[in-house]
Design brief:
- The protein is mostly helical and 200 residues long.
- The protein is built from seven helices and no strands.
- The protein folds into two domains: 63 residues, no CATH class; 125 residues, no CATH class.
- Helix 6 packs antiparallel against helix 7.
Length: 200
């Protein structure tokens, strides 16, 4: 066993000695590790490959890129539709107002019908329009009443408040006063119309 170790040590020493002795004589050029290459052709090939690659990428992007289509519904459209629906519902509410001054029914409670629920719906739609407007356009507001976005927002808030006031002040009994119920509803519809006109 010891003889094997001695033989391995001698062989290793011989290999080391021969490599050190010939190290000065052998150069990398002799080993031909770096054969002569015509780099001008390589650069030209690389340039051609890059051009073909960019053309292929451009063609692929053009084929996969679809034209921009506006979404069916987004926050801006929803805001506008809510405001318009609020105004239309307020107009329906005004058109279906019952005769609360009927002397034959004086003192009897007024049943809540289409007029009442249409008013509630107008107020709810107005509130939803105001909320969606705040969510979508808070950064557009300026501290000036002359700014169209700020005026639009104020008119929308006032219109919705007028709707809510009109609903709360609706007459409860025939022949009783309405406390400006109709005037508040008309003012609310007018302000909502102006708010819509300013932006749309």
């Amino acid at each position: 066993m010891r003889w094997i170790q001695i033989a391995a040590a001698i062989i290793a020493a011989a290999i080391i000695a021969t490599t050190q002795a010939t190290a000065g004589e052998i150069t990398l050029r002799d080993l031909d590790l770096y054969p002569q290459i015509d780099y001008s052709k390589t650069i030209q090939l690389a340039h051609n490959d890059a051009g073909e690659h960019s053309a292929a990428v451009g063609a692929m992007a053009a084929s996969t890129e679809e034209p921009f289509e506006e979404p069916f519904m987004d926050g801006d459209k929803l805001h506008g539709y809510l405001g318009a629906a609020s105004l239309l519902t307020a107009l329906l509410t005004a058109a279906t107002a019952p005769d609360s001054e009927n002397p034959a029914l004086r003192g009897q409670p007024i049943k809540k019908g289409f007029h009442h629920y249409a008013g509630l719906t107008a107020a709810a739609l107005g509130g939803a329009a105001v909320l969606s407007g705040f969510i979508q356009h808070t950064e557009d507001l300026e501290p000036s009443l002359l700014d169209p976005d700020t005026a639009h927002m104020l008119l929308g808030v006032l219109a919705t408040s007028a709707y809510a006031y009109a609903v709360s002040k609706g007459p409860k009994k025939y022949g009783m006063g309405s406390g400006g119920h109709a005037a508040a509803g008309i003012a609310g519809a007018s302000m909502m119309g102006m708010a819509i006109y300013l932006e749309f």
